[in-house]
Amino acid sequence: MIDAKPFGIENFTAVYVLRGEKAALIEGGPASGAERLLTGLREIGVDLKEIAYIMVTHIHVDHWGGASLILDEMPNAKVIAHPKGLTHMANPDKLWEQSKAVLGEVADIFGKPAPIPVERLIPAEDGMIINLGDMEIQVIETLGHAPHHVSYYERLSGSLFPGETAGMHVKDLNAIIPATPPVIILEKLFESIDKLIRLNPEIIYYTHFGPADNAVEKLNVYAKQLRIWSSTINECLRNNEDYDAILARLMERDPNFKVAFEYIRKHPVIGRALKSIIQGFIVNGFSCKIPSKS
Ligand SMILES: [Zn+2]
């Protein structure tokens, strides 16, 4: 695993290096982590020419910008991503505009990806197997966090790379945090989590951040957390409660959030994103404004 450390932010964006007969990366980090990614690959002694694939879980800019900037150094690597994302990877201008609109200053922390030549892009079709010699990676379409999201499952070791379908994980606190952009499709996300549970994985490799055991239990905890957040946030809005009241209620009802709140508040990315994470749960029909004192 390489920590891409955008702007020095540690333990937030992981890039996983798989080494079978062929080498591959899962995720490509953000553009601002490109140099760090390159250094990391050299440090662990990966011959960049041997990298055959870069498997991207979805096209949000923190998941492939880094690899896009150093693709010339990996002349034999093809980039695999959901078919719906490929045109944006070939021409990221529109994606970048949307990222700035949704993420604000967080987009600048990640940086703008470079276009990837079309001939180097491969669509990640559901069920497809990517053979690395002694590793078999299965593509699982897991929509919800984004309409262009896939997860990767290494079948021989039971290793799951869920991208953001399983939320974010803070190892030191053993806490899970929702990864829910404002455009989340919650029903699809529940279906996707169920799909991952049915694989019965052993180890879960979070992009945000790091490996963790008890994969099935963690997936179940995340599904439960999403239910708590969804019901709590919408209940608060019906009662016209403000943002601070929503946070207080979530802390009452979700032990993970209670444990992680201070960490989230101080985190340069998650702290800035918290309001938009909450926005993701607001069901259609509500005016999407969260009343706010602050
Ligand atoms: Zn992400």
Write structural notes for this entry:
This protein has a six-stranded mixed beta sheet with strand order 1-2-3-4-5-6. It has a six-stranded mixed beta sheet with strand order 7-8-9-10-13-14. By secondary structure, the protein is of the alpha/beta class. Helix 6 (186-198) packs antiparallel against helix 7 and helix 9 (255-266) packs across helix 10. The protein has one domain (2-223): Metallo-beta-lactamase, Chain A. The model has no long low-confidence stretch (mean pLDDT 94). It has ten helices and 14 strands. The structure holds zinc ion. The site of zinc ion (ZN) has 6 residues, from loops.
Characteristics of this structure?
single chain; 294 residues; alpha/beta; Metallo-beta-lactamase, Chain A; six-stranded mixed β-sheet; 14 strands; 18% strand; globular; binds zinc ion
Helices and strands, with pairings:
Layout: E1 2-3, E2 14-19, E3 23-26, H1 34-43, E4 51-55, H2 65-69, E5 78-81, H3 86-90, H4 93-103, H5 105-110, E6 121-123, E7 129-131, E8 136-141, E9 150-154, E10 159-161, E11 168-170, E12 175-177, H6 186-198, E13 203-206, E14 210-212, H7 215-238, H8 243-253, H9 255-266, H10 270-279
Parallel strand pairs: 3-4, 4-5, 5-6, 10-13
Antiparallel strand pairs: 1-2, 2-3, 7-8, 8-9, 9-10, 11-12, 13-14
Structural class, by secondary structure, is: alpha/beta
Within the largest sheet, what's the order of strands? 1-2-3-4-5-6
CATH class: Alpha Beta
Mean of residue pLDDT values: 94
- Give the SSE order as H and E letters: EEEHEHEHHHEEEEEEEHEEHHHH
Q: How many extended strands?
A: 14
CATH topology: Metallo-beta-lactamase, Chain A
**What best-fitting shape do the alpha-carbon axes yield?**
globular
* Percent of residues in β-strands: 15-25%
Molecules bound to protein: zinc ion
How far apart the termini lie comes to: 39 Å
Radius of gyration: 18 Å
Give the uncertain stretches in residue-range form: none
Q: Mind summarizing the main beta sheet?
A: 6 strands, mixed
Give the tally of structural domains. Answer: 1
CATH superfamily: Ribonuclease Z/Hydroxyacylglutathione hydrolase-like
Residue share in helix:
25-40%
CATH architecture: 4-Layer Sandwich
Quickly count the helices: 10
